[in-house]
Amino acid sequence: MSPRPLLRRLVAGLAAAFPIVLPAAEVTLKRADDRVRVEVGGKLFTEYVFKGGPKPYFHPVLAADGTQLTRNFPMKKGVPGEVEDHPHHRSLWFTHGDVNGIDFWAEGSDKKGLIVSDSVEHSVAGGAGVIKARNRWVGPDGAVHLTDETVVRITAAGDSRFLDYQVTLKAPAGKPVVLGDTKEGSMAIRLPLWMTPPHTYSANKQRVKHAGTGTIINAEGVKNTAAWGKRSTWVDYHGPKDGKVHGVAIFDHPSNPRHPTWWHVRDYALFAANPFGKHDFENLKDQPKAGEMTIPAGGSVTFRWRFYFHSGDEKASKVAEQYRAFSASK
To answer: Are 296 and 200 in contact (CB under 8 A)?
Structure first.
């Protein structure tokens, strides 16, 4: 054997035995009256906006090279190349469409619920930016139906970005909370049009065919529209832009109730983990409350998800390996 193939085998063996660990990038947080700005290596990654809207949300979310990975609408209108549907799809957010019968998912009506910020704290430790928020879920009658304690941890390595979202939902002391069975929820992101697979959407009262080149794929290899309503440990959504593939994966932690979760993931760029929509996702017409969850009075339930913003498709970015690392975390 010539020296060159032998050297290649040696290098490959060393790479397998000692995988390269990319250095962590510096995360900084900057507070304003209505938001916390998150920077990685001195450049904007995202902002946590906790005032001025019907619910807190992250917007925009940018890749390491500055490519925007979330839609602008409804925060910005008239952006070329965007579809201005579903105005309640606010970039990256958590909520649910049936809390004690009240819709906190949709917007634009005095019959909808609002998630109101009570407090926001931020810190940087161990290379991670941490945002801690407390919120009240207020119904149209002004009553508080639910509170949450949310902890978001942001880290980065190389051109990868990680956003870990932990939310603890708490019922008031004197009343249980019923999280109803609906597909309208829950841990969600609205991606840009260029990331989508081929699909048809409505614009100016007409149906428009979009020849998208993006891909939706779950842990079992189920792709695009077939991934909707399926249970899986993770789903990845990726597509090409300007000669480079960008992607977003969401991981469902094994400690979550009803793991692996169902996925409300659409070919038009809505991407959401929803542990409450069993009746809708499994077409259980005779069991409309199959996915309902009750938090007893004074009780709580906690969910953990990770957003993995990456370059390349699910194989090149090693989504499965990243999920295994997340699933082993305490």
So the answer is: no
Report d(CA 325, CA 238) in Å as an integer.
21
Which of these, 149, 136, 130, 150, lies nearest to 31 by C-alpha position?
130
> Residue 325: phi, psi to the nearest 5?
-65, -40
- Cα(171)–Cα(179) distance, rounded to whole angstroms? 11
- From residue 290, alpha-carbon distances to 254, 275, 295 in Å are 21, 11, 15
Please measure the distance between the N-terminal and C-terminal CA atoms of the chain and give it in whole angstroms. 47
pLDDT digits (tens, 9 = 90+) for 62-98: 999 999 999 999 999 999 989 999 999 999 999 999 9
- Mind listing the domains of the chain with CATH numbers? 27-327 (2.70.98)
pLDDT digit string, tens, across residues 208-264: 999 999 999 999 999 999 999 999 999 999 999 999 999 999 999 999 999 999 999
Which tokens go with 120?
């926001």
- Cβ contact 87:77 at 8 Å: no
Residues 94 and 159: their CA atoms lie apart, in Å, by 25
Residue type, position 229, single letter: G
Radius of gyration, CA atoms only, the chain: 20
The H or E element that residue 128 is part of is strand 128-138
How far apart, in whole angstroms, are the C-alpha atoms of residue 270 and residue 89? 8
List, in sequence order, every residue forming a beta bridge with 129; answer none if it has no partner. Answer: 124, 154
Closest CA relative to residue 151, chosen from 177, 173, 129: 129
Place of tokens 């602008």: 72
CB 69 within 8 A of CB 61: yes
